[in-house]
Design a protein that fits this description.
about 350 residues, six-stranded parallel sheet, Rossmann fold, globular, Dihydrodipicolinate Reductase, domain 2, 12 helices
Amino acid sequence: MIKAGIIGSTGYAGGELVRLLLGHREAEIVWYGSRSYVGQDYASVYQNMFEIVDAKCMDDNMDELAGRADVIFTATPQGLCASLVNEEILSGTKVIDLSADFRLRDVKIYEEWYKMEHKAPQYIGEAVYGLCEINREKIRGARLVANPGCYPTCSILSVYPLLKEGMIDPSSIIIDAKSGTSGAGRGAKTDNLFCEVNENMKAYSVANHRHTPEIEEQLSYAAGEPVVLNFTPHLAPMNRGILVTAYASLKREISYEEMKQVYDRYYGAERFVRVLPKDVCPQTKWVEGSNYVDINFKIDPRTKRVIMMGAMDNLVKGAAGQAVQNMNLLFGLDEAEGLRQAPMFP
C-alpha cells in the first residue's frame, strides 16, 4: 500500500483528496495535516467523514511526515510547500504540490504575480508540471510534481491540440472562464458569502489573474513560440465546476472533420478527456464529482475563428483528482485507480 500524507487536508481540495484516496485500493492516508485544526477529530471538521475517518488532524511537519509517507500532497496556499521542501524530504518521498509554487519556470514571474519571495527556487527546474495528458512520461520519473491550477487545466486541454498543430494564431487567443465558489478556497471572505454570490455573476482579477502566466507558459511550449493572451475569470453561483470558452483565429480554412480528427488523435485514447459529438456543448453538470474533462469546438466560418470549449470539476480534475492521477503515474499504477467515479447528477 502507498502511504499518503496530506498537508492542508481540511481545505476544499484537501477534503476532496481524502474522499478520493479513501476509495483508492492501493493507498492509505497516514497523515491528515491541518494547521488550523491540530488535535481535533478530522470527522468533526468534515462530518461527512463521521465513522469513516477515525483520525485526528496533525500539523504541517513535513520532515516528520516524510519518514512515514511514500507521497506527500500539499494542498496549501502559495509559499508553504516551497518553505518546507528540502533535499532530505525529496530523497525519501514524492511530493505533489497543489499550490503554484513550482508551476512557473521563471522565479521572477512567480514573484511578480504572487507577490512573495520564492523559498526554494533550486527545485523549480526539477519540478514536473503535472498535466498528465501532456507530460505523462516526465511525471513517471519525478520527485516533485507541480499539480496544475484548475483554470489552466481546462484552458490548456481545450486549446492545446489546435495550437500544437499550428491551426490557430497564437496571438489571437482569448479565454473566458467561469468557476464555482469552491475555487476560491474555504477561508472566510465577504465576496464568497451566500448573499454576495447567489443570483450573481461577476468577472474578477481582470487582466491580472495569477493563472494567466501559467496558461501562457504551457501554451507557449505547445506553440513553439511565446504566447500572450487575454484570460478573464468569472465567479459563478455554484459550488463546483469550471467552464472555459476560448476563441482564436484560424490560420486557414479547416473543415469540422479535419478538426475533429485532431482532437481525437490527441484525446481519443485518454481516459479522462471526452471529446463530445458535433454541436454538443460541454456543461459543468455532466462532469461534477468526476475526473472527466468534456471538450468540444465550433468553427465560425463567418469570422474565420474557432470557439474551443471545456468543462470539468475544479476540485477533482482541477485539483485533487489530478493529484491522485499524478500519484498513480509516479507509482506505476493504473492511471484511473481511485478515479473511476461517474459524474454525479443531479
